[in-house]
Amino acid sequence: GSIITFSRSSNEDLDKILKELTHKIILPSYLSVPQRKKLFRSRWKHKLEQDPIEIELDDQRIRLRHIDSAGGAVPAARRMLYQAMDNMRTTNDWQKLPGLLEALWFNANRRFLPSDWPKIVRKAGQAGHMGPVFEAMKNPGRTGLKLDSSETVQEVMTAVVWQAASEGWTAGATERAYRNAERVIQFLAEEGHQLQGQAKTTFEKTDRFPLRKDPQVLATPLLLAAAMVVKHGKDGEHMKRLRVYAQIVLEQWPENKGLLELHPHEAYVDPEGMAYLMERNRFLTVAAPILRGFDLAVEALGADEMGQELKSRRNAVSAEVHDALAAVEKGKRGATMYEKCFAEPQVQKTKKAAAAAAETAA
Fold first, then answer.
1. Which DSSP string do the residues of 115-163 spell out, in sequence order?
2. What are phi and psi of 53, to 5 degrees?
3. Residue 264 within a domain
4. Does residue 134 sit within a domain?
5. Which of 28, 74, 87, 336 has its CA 20 to 30 A from that of 158?
6. Are residues 178 and 315 in the same domain?
7. How far is CA 23 from CA 38, 115, 171, 187, 248, in A?
8. pTM value > 0.85
9. Cβ neighbours around 212 below 10 Å, total
10. Into how many domains does the chain fold?
């Protein structure tokens, strides 16, 4: 295939990192096995000084000389990837991410840890650049970015909600977020994002929800559809989708159970399962939008039986959220997410109280 290359970035630090990755990891991955051995073995060092290995790249001939892998000259791909991400400052910089993942994961066959994928998504989300993440998710077989763990899927959903909340839940921002959440649900049904091998067996043995039917996951499109109905009066298509999501959530989420009782017990002690929810700050980041979604869905559904049934789930999650809120410092991601989800109702309450006080005074 054609060699993945990187155009100039917004800053020298990122250019330097990408150049080192290209010359020491990415380009060598395109060589034949005998050529690669020559490149990394010290006995070929002098020969390569005289007669370097040449690769054609963008109409230029690149000369590769000995790389002292035993002496630590080959950088750690994962560490360098994070350094690159830390130096991505512009949209153009972030657009290099899918190519970088493909070059390292697929072409250079570098292996990542299961914990790397949610971390990659989180870093992109916190920088406000989820576009390249969605781009990478279109081709999981080449980028490695698979939606095959709850934590990875949750980080995507968290970023989607955070973006809408940061833009003040405007109709445009909420609709965009809603469409992105629906894209995630579509990805989850695709072949490339399915669990394989041992992970699949463990998942089935411990009776976990398939991710595309996991009520914790579906709570995000439920929140966003409900926000469109309640805040922006969109009661046509959004109301229909809200009812679909509410129905699945009610079928899968047991009555009077909170988020910490939703999954099988084994899942909460599995580092690749739901163990991330055991940390209060992370739990609050996930649970605050779920609670807000239940509130809005109950409001949208009014006297409908479905709305009444959602209340028992809502009350259980509410108790957990308020316990976590008391334990998480202000300014932490979880506390900020709670504020982003509930700040507006607070403003409305204050306005109503002020209006009532003015009326009484009159």
1. THHHHHHHHHHHTT--HHHHHHHT-HHHH-----SHHHHHHHHHHHHHH
2. -75, 135
3. yes
4. no
5. 87
6. yes
7. 15, 27, 46, 34, 50
8. yes
9. 19
10. 2
DSSP H or E segment with residue 64: strand 60-64
pLDDT tens by residue, 103-151: 999 999 999 999 999 999 999 999 999 999 999 999 999 999 999 999 9
Last-in-domain residue among 92, 112, 132 = 112
**Residue keyed to tokens 């991330």:** 276
Structure token digits, residue 195: 């669990």
Residues 97 and 227 both lie in one domain: no
Backbone angles phi, psi at 274, to 5 degrees: -105, 10
Backbone angles phi, psi at 70, to 5 degrees: -65, -30
pLDDT in tens, 325-354: 999 999 999 999 999 999 865 555 566 667
**CB 224 within 8 Å of CB 289:** no
Domain-embedded: residue 214: yes
Which residues, other chains included, contact 266 with Cβ-Cβ below 8 Å and sequence gap of 6+? 206, 273
Domain around 75: 1-112
3-class SS shares of the chain: helix, strand, coil, % to 5: 70, 5, 25
- For 65, the token pair is 């000389």
By residue count, the chain amounts to 362
Instruction: Find tokens 């929800």 and name the residue.
Output: 209
How would DSSP label each residue in 191-241? GGGS--HHHHHHHHHTTPPPGGG-HHHHHHHHHHHHHHHHHH---SHHHHH
Q: How many CA atoms lie within 13 A of 329 on its CB side?
A: 2
